[in-house]
Amino acid sequence: MAKIELTRNPFIKNALKSRYPQLAVFIVMLVGYIFAILAGLIGTSVGSHNFSIVFVWIAWWAILILVAVPFFGRGWCAVCPIPLPGEWLQRGAVLSPPDKKPKWLNLRVPKMFRNIWLQNISFLLLALFSSVLLTTPNITGIVLAAMLFAAIGLSTIFERRSFCRYLCPVGGFIGLYSQTAPIELRVKDKQVCVKCEGKPCYNGSQAGYGCPWDVFPGGLTKNTYCGLCMECIRTCPHDNIAINLRPFSADLAKPSTRMDEAFKSFIMLGSAMIYAGVLLGPWGAFKNAAYNVGTGAWFLYAIIFLAIIFVILPGLFTLGILPTKSTLPLKQRFASLSTALIPLGLLFWVAFSLSFVLTNASYILAALSDPLGLGWNLFGTANTTWQPMLTSLLAPAQTLALVGGLIWSARTAQKAANEIKISSIPVIAFCFITTLVMLWLLL
Amino acid sequence: MNSRFSLLLFVMAGLAVAFAPLPVPPITPQVQTFEIGAGQFAYSPSELKVNPGDTVNIQLVSTDVVHGLYIDGYDISIEADPGQTKTLSFVADKPGSFRFRCNITCGAMHPFMIGKLTVGTNNWFLRSIGLATLAIISVIVSVKQKA
Amino acid sequence: MKRSELLSRILITVTIVGAIGTPLFIWARTPLIHASVAEDGGWNPDTIQAHIGVPLHLKLTSDDVVHGFAVGQIDMQSVDVLPGKVTDLTLTFDKPGIYTFFCTRWCGLNHWRMRGTIEVSGSPSEPEPATVPMYVTLNLDIDVLHDSPVVPKQTPSAIRGQELITNSPILRSSNYYRSHSPYQVFDDLSDTSLTESQRWDVVAYLWRSNTSKDSFANGKQLYTQNCAACHGENGSGDGVFADDLTAAGEASMQTMTGADDMMMQSPVDFTNPVRMLGASPALLQGKILRGGMGTGMPMWGSIFTEEQIWDLIAYIYSFQFEYQQ
To answer: ipTM higher than 0.85?
Structure first.
């Protein structure tokens, strides 16, 4: 299946090149985000009736994991409001391209942080406190505000979108999973880039800013670090940048050998399984342990959580691939083969999310009409009763997602193993076993 | 055997595993009564097992605040105040595994207050295991075919 | 700066200020009464000011679990106070004074402590004399043991008693009933020719005749909503909070001299004939009005009307007597 260049269509191209449509979306998102902070801080303490919990952890999460990531890769990053105030400060403008040097310190992020380990840690921090975060409006409000201020702060010190690239807990996993998406931003002809003077796509020009994601578009071969902000489409003087439709998981054919990315796939796989067991299972003791932060039970829960993610899962995986012989050292084999866990992890999260989203989506209508729990009825839907949706379709949908993810991962494992001339059976076996566990936890 | 043919074979096997009717063991339906305690944020007991066709009576005893019990799939529910046990009666005519959950906001972890009702065997889970196994076999076969 | 840049900046500023300012303004001007479980503060605020004749508009919301709201000793239907939702209620008072409002849906061990006051000002039309409860006029010590020396061998039946009743007017007066324990009435009947079992049946009938079908039903509902959670749905003192109360009692520093302090901390078993048959309705009224002095038994004086308490007492005795076939 070949690639289809979407930006060939003049309507699409102009919509992406023009700053106005993007600005309109940005304003809506930024206002919504700040309103979510307000709702979290002054609205009702009851999560299910507070805009911040319902619209962040149900509505936004559902759209993110069920639509944006599988179909648009880093599509959420393209419209996320978090970097905007900081970026506007850096640029000294909201809309206009630069006509003077960038403001503020503009330091380069130190090399030791130029990886996704900080993102792994920030995701894990949220994950360990997730039971409190997902159910307590003022905690959600504080976390959202903290991310916004961190992004603004980092923008005044470092260049480009350093929060997005190196700290954002969400960016860590959607970058990894964007490799599976059917959309990509790539240059049309590499030779044009070779001859290009000044590389304005990276360095900026009168037409626009240099890539906020610190990516050189001419060298993009994978989606992982491109935030789809469309700035390079505006700056490229040779019209050499395109948005393409392509087969799913095209990027996984070139497995990465980075350890930070490898562990990210274990973090995501493990946390999906743990949440399926703790949050959706019938075992009350685990839920209380997860919720009562600071107690002995919670410490035990946190230790087990981290052990599963950093020791048990990668340990089993490594044991499986140890016997395989290859010219590649174990570390690189480990990283390259763990690429196979990317589609599996994504679909584990889809299967898990389907359950609580379909169960609780009815809260969205109520929270829309009475976002702060003050007794408003803005759209007439404030008294919508809680009603799980499509519950008869849930189990088949989860099976489809998990078995589909298994097949996809097995085939990815095949290709990755072939690249380094070893057997894919251990990885396939690992995927099979974890899928069985997930099926047992969810069904 | 060329790959097109084996793909077709696997798809047909998959459909069979997913949808072929399974024999229902002939168990006489009976009346089963359970007393379930509900406290923040778990049910006790939290896992119930009945046979298809049984008349099930669930006596909900709330032990701290007002709780409810809603059964996915059956779309029926009941709520109980502490000191006022209420009974939910229904015929378990749908086989499979169903989660039951609290439908009265009872505190922070309310959305995760969940139990599990199994009517008969959890057939869908068994089918899923079958499908996953079939999927693995098909991938391994295609690996061997390409080799 | 270019015009588009200026307009964009204005648009952004206006929308953000509007999206923050408007809800913030409305929120600050919305007077909500928040309900949380007693351990987290109960009602906030817990004192409300009102004036006679002026409608008091209340907006109630719960910050955690299902609560309810009612005002003691006035004729009103309780309303539910639901998590995340707002209940609107308008009350008008015609007599000044301090009214107690309370939670009406069980929300934990300390549910009964969830109370507040409404201070209603205004000049009284005429001063109301306070009614002195019967246990005070009778000089009853409601904290001493009141065990019945004799208990019936079978459940006394009001049906059988009805056929045996004498025509003595004293026996039939409500004053007599209220001031005497079942045992005392049983003892007073010893000058008749009735057997012990028949005498208990007459007692059962007397007790039933001092209440009506509606009052009994009212008493049952009051018991179910207010008492069953501790005293048990079947009156055996085994309600869902009984264990927690006993555990709290063990930790409690308060002891009663001359009494079994462990027993004092567990909810009373109304099916125990020794204890119940030695208690007069006036004694029970006293205990209900005043509460348990360090035990978990709430004081209901500001909550129930006198009529409600007599109705409740009539129901409580039905754990001892058979009122119908």
So the answer is: yes
